[in-house]
Automatic annotation (TrEMBL):
The lineage of its organism: Eukaryota, Metazoa, Chordata, Craniata, Vertebrata. It is a multi-pass membrane protein. The gene is SLC6A4. Na(+) binds at G62, A64, V65, N69, S305, N337, L403, D406, S407. This is Transporter. It holds the Pfam family SNF. Residues 1-23 are annotated as: Disordered.
Amino acid sequence: MGAISDSSATFPSSSAGTASGGLTGSSVPLGGLRTLVVQQTSLERPRETWSKKMDFLLSVIGYAVDLGNVWRFPYICYQNGGGAFLLPYLLMAVFGGVPLFYMELALGQFHRSGCISIWKHICPIFKGIGFAICIIALYIAFYYNTIMAWALYYLLSSFRPTLPWTTCTNSWNTANCNRYMSTDHNVSWSNSSTSPAEEFYTRQVLQVHLSPGLHQLGSVSWQLALCLLFIFTIVYFSIWKGVKTSGKVVWVTATFPYLVLLVLLIRGATLPGAWRGVVFYLKPDWEKLLSTTVWIDAAAQIFFSLGPGFGVLLAFASYNPFHNNCYKDALVTSSVNCLTSFLSGFVIFTVLGYMAEMRHQDVDAVAKDAGPSLLFIIYAEAIANMPAATFFSIIFFLMIIMLGLDSTFAGLEGVITAMLDEFPHVLVKRRELFVFGLVCVCYLGALSTLTYGGAFVVKLFEEYATGPAVITVVLLEVIAVSWFYGTNRFCNDIQVMLGFSPGFFWRVCWVAICPCFLLFIIISFLAFPPEVRLFHYHYPPWTTVLGYCIGVSSFICVPAYMVYHLLNAKGTFKQVQ
């Protein structure tokens, strides 16, 4: 099912001819001519482009560097052997994550299309992949922005002389609340103790104690509803005009977090006990490399960190000049993403070491949870006990919001670009109205996450609605490109754009290693399904069924469209692919 080899064709260099592909002055056999015709056709339509190259790079970095870099990578790293975890992480990045990242940038830039219409150039029978990606993006928007609403609630609560999660005298506190300071040796920390930061998060922000579980979510929190409304308002006015506006906004949202991370790193390094956290973070446990779980976590972490398969890289690259060096962009942005994850580990674990020193506990007793709790409980408590706590609290939660914002810009832009490219005559002139409708749908879809039991919904979406579905979709994507469209044809496309063809390493990765990489994650998920729990709530069996149904609801677009395409197409099976 592979494509006819085009390796003997002669192509113009990146500087030959015109910007539309250099159709003059070259002798191009049939295969090369097909490539250049596709290129010229895609360029005949006027298409918005990035104002500056840096707008594109910051947008991609802002998309890839998100909240998971700050909370998930450090936790996964220490849990899986500390410094030893860096070996499987780098291997999975080199052989799996980066090749997929490069592939999507090249596809989007060459075909200048979103994740739906691009398949008419590659393999039309797989067009359902694009629709599945759009549904997955909506599911992410339903819960991801709620985390930013929590951060906004914390940010607004920080404008006080005394941070509200530093005392146990508030109306939401319980008898177990214990503000343990290292200078107060008359107070002991027990297993039943809860910090004021934990009670502020669970009982004041989430109000999760008012919901018994997913079967009874309770009312919508009006405070969080207003916070989320403000977040979506920022999102709308940042993306409503296209990449020329969002490309300017990311100059703030993508760079400010690095400034804050640097400030927090310097401050954390000066805290007592910081060295304990760093040692705990990086001390290698080589025996853990013999565990399959470590390699599974490394593969999953690099995949979700770089973020191929969500339609974003295709959309962003489609607005690039045709001869932009997307190969260099892929290496630079993926490297920045991985280094940011590593740096975030120091920012988090210097503070965890400080907390362990305060409580006279081991670091692993403090770092007992990943996810939002690490930021909204442990880190918030540590900030509250620092000098100038209000200042550090404001910049920290502002950083969390900005990390989430540019990822949301990117996720929705992937959907917007896909729909505008697929239905240009209807939507292109009504972009602002379409974006407004999309944002309203996302807000309404997120209302269930704003209830008293909303945190349970967020966890359910995070575990089931997006992960397995998007990995399966990307597996089909790389198979369609490498095996149906053909690696030789794809590499010839890249040669037309960049003036050089990908080497043997990239070809092997796309044909064999990347599919095995993705299949490994899928099989691991099915063989070792996650035990989902949040706080003291264990998800009942029916929620697993519900979670898989939500995941399948997006992926079902792929086989459904295949059936539709085969029933309506004429000719042989090979001709209708």
